[in-house]
């Protein structure tokens, strides 16, 4: 996700997106723990997306 796309979203949409990203991160970590993760770089990308969403939410408040 790009920051510009996130800035166009409403607060409720961002909160929902944040919950989805956290669930995805949990699933990726679980897959990594049982050695079924095919793309380990995805974990870092999801972490950065979470940080972007949290930054935009902080800006809106």
Can you characterise this structure?
There is one protein chain. This protein is an all-alpha fold. It has one domain (3-60): Helix Hairpins, CATH 1.10.287.310. It has 3 helices and no strands. It has helices at residues 3-7, 11-33, 41-60. The chain is elongated and about 40 Å long. This is Large ribosomal subunit protein uL29. Keywords: Ribonucleoprotein, Ribosomal protein. Belongs to the universal ribosomal protein uL29 family.
Tally of helical runs:
3
Question: Sheet with the most strands?
Answer: none
CATH class assignment:
Mainly Alpha
| Rg, nearest Å | 13 Å
Amino-to-carboxy terminus distance: 21 Å
Name the structural class.
mainly alpha
Topology of helices and strands:
Layout (H helix, E strand, L loop, with lengths): L2 H5 L3 H23 L7 H20 L1
Helix pairs in contact: 2-3
InterPro entries: Ribosomal_protein_uL29, Ribosomal_uL29, Ribosomal_uL29_sf
Family: Belongs to the universal ribosomal protein uL29 family.
Organism: Faecalibacterium prausnitzii
Summarize the structure.
This protein is an all-alpha fold.
Key terms:
0% strand, 61 residues, Helix Hairpins, 3 helices, mainly alpha, 79% helix
